[in-house]
Amino acid sequence: MSPSGFAPGVLRSVAWGAMDRPSKFEHHRFLGDKRTQVVYDVDALDEADAHLIEELIESEAYLCFGPDTLPEARNRGYRLFAKQRAAASGD
């Protein structure tokens, strides 16, 4: 068991949106990566990219925002995950 409470390679989750939210963050839509200053919209993340959240949780380099909004993440210098930015802009 890792210090975060997750067994290595295992992501416990709660069904919510396109992918499951990690149980530790079941009430948070936006999760930030402190290493890269990237924020992920967990509800809009493709299943193909779910491994990014699992790796982020295992690294313990994550951050949630209060309030749990994209403008708050941007206020803290985080930028939306590139794939999600492209989807939001219609590209």
Q: What's this model, at a glance?
A:
The chain is an alpha+beta fold. It contains 3 helices and 6 strands. The protein has helices at residues 50-59, 70-75, 82-89, and strands spanning 13-14, 21-22, 30-33, 38-41, 62-64, 79-80.
Structure description:
The relative contact order is 0.20. Strands 5-3-4-6 form a four-stranded mixed β-sheet. The chain has helices at residues 50-59, 70-75, 82-89; strands at residues 13-14, 21-22, 30-33, 38-41, 62-64, 79-80. The chain is α+β, with helices and mostly antiparallel strands and 91 residues long. A hairpin with a 4-residue loop joins strand 3 (30-33) and strand 4 (38-41). It is globular and about 30 Å long. It contains three helices and six strands; from the N terminus they run E-E-E-E-H-E-H-E-H.
List the helices and strands and how they pair.
Blueprint: E1 13-14, E2 21-22, E3 30-33, E4 38-41, H1 50-59, E5 62-64, H2 70-75, E6 79-80, H3 82-89
Largest sheet: 4 strands, mixed
Spell the H/E element sequence: EEEEHEHEH
What is the rounded Rg? 13 Å
Helix proportion range:
25-40%
Determine the structural class based on helices, strands and strand pairing.
Answer: alpha+beta
Strand content: 15-25%
Counting H and I runs of at least 4 residues, what is the number of helices? 3
Which word captures the global form? globular
Widest β-sheet, arrangement of strands:
5-3-4-6
Total number of β-strand segments? Answer: 6
Mean pLDDT: 81
The end-to-end span amounts to: 41 Å
Poorly predicted sequence stretches spanning 5 or more consecutive residues: 1-17
